[in-house]
Amino acid sequence: MRILVLCYEYPPVGGGGGRIASVVSEGLAARGHTVRVVTSHTGTLPREETSANGVSIRRAFAGRLRQDRCTVPEMAAYVASHMFIVSAEIARFKPDVIHSHFAVPTGAVAWLATRLQRVPYVITAHLADVPGAMPEQTELLFRFAKPMTRPIWRAAAASSAVAPHLVELADKAYGQRPVVVRNGIDMSDAAREPLPVQGPVRVLWCGRMQAQKNLGPVLLGLGAIAELPWTLDLIGDGPLRGQVEESIHKAGLGNKARLHGWLGAERVRELFKQSHVLFMPSLSEGLSLVTIEALRDALAIVGSRIPGIDDVVIDGENGILCNPHEPETYAKALAQLIENPDALEAMRRAALARAPLYDAERMVDAYEELLSRAADQST
Q1: Which of 229, 259, 324, 368 could form a disulfide with 304 if both were Cys (CB 3.0 to 4.6 A apart)?
Q2: CA separation for the pair 204, 72 (Å, rounded)
Q3: Which CATH number does 201-358 carry?
C-alpha cells in the first residue's frame, strides 16, 4: 500500500501520540509499504528526511512555536496551512489510504483535503481528541468545536482508539465505535530480569507538566515520606513546571527530586533502565505509552486508578493503583514499596511478564489490517 500518514506532531515534536505514529509508520514501512509522513515543522528540524526503514517525512509550516506543546490557535493554524499542503501531497504521492493520528486537529485536515480528492482515511484517537476524555483541558474547546468534528468521524473509512474507554466516549459523542488498537513498543530489547536495587529506590516520572498529569498536588503529599531512602527523576517540561518546582520546595524534596527537562530518546531510556518505580498520578490518559515503557524495563508502577493506566497495571501484581483525588494515597503506596524490597522485586518481575502484551508487532498487525480494509473500499 501507499500510505500517507498525517499527524500534527511527530518525533521529536510532541508526546506519546506522535511517538506511536512513528512506531506504526516505521513498522509498516519495514513490511514493504510505501509510507509518507506529513507533520508540523518547528525550529531547525529538517524539512525533508528519510528514516532508516524508508519512511519519508515532510515537516511543513504549521505556526507551531514549541516542540513540547501546541496551543489552540496553533492547532487552528495547522489546519489552515496543512489543508492545502496535504491536498498537494495527495496529488503528488497518490496514496491508497490516509492514516490520521488524532481526530482533532489532524482529522480536520484529512477531511478537508479529501473532499475533492477522494482518498479513504482512517482516524486513530489518542485521548484529548475525543470529547470527555480530558475535561479539565478540552471541555470548553469541544463545547464549540463538537458540531464541526462530527463530519470528520462520519466520513472516515474506519476509526480506531488506543483504549476501550475512548470507544465509549466516541460512541457517546458521535455514535461511532472505533476499533481498539492498543499502543505498543519494540519489546525486542526488554530487560531479562530486574536489576537489583542498590541504594535508594529510584522513582521516575515522565511527561508534560500540565493539569492532566496532576503532578504538583501529588508531589506535596510526598513530603510525608521525605525521610525514606528514595529519589525522584522528572523528565519533561510544560506550562506547570513552576508549580512542580514550588511543590518540590514546599514538600521538602529538594534533595531528592531532579528535574531533567526534555531529553533525547537515548538518555530517557538510560533513566528508565536505572529506575525501579514509575510514578503516574494522572487524572486522565489514553493508553499511557510511558507505562508500557515501564513494563519493558521492569519498573513497578504507582499510578492512578483510571482508564489508560489500569489497562496496564494489575493492582497488587505489577503496581499499585491510587485515587487521583486523594494525593496522600500515592505516598502510602510508594512507602509500601520502598520499605518492602521483596514486594518491589515481585512487582518488577510481574511488569516484565506483562511486557509482551504490548509488543509493537501486534499493534502494527492491527493497523495494517485496518488500513488495508479501508484502502480496499476505494477499489
Answers
A1: 324
A2: 30
A3: 3.40.50.2000
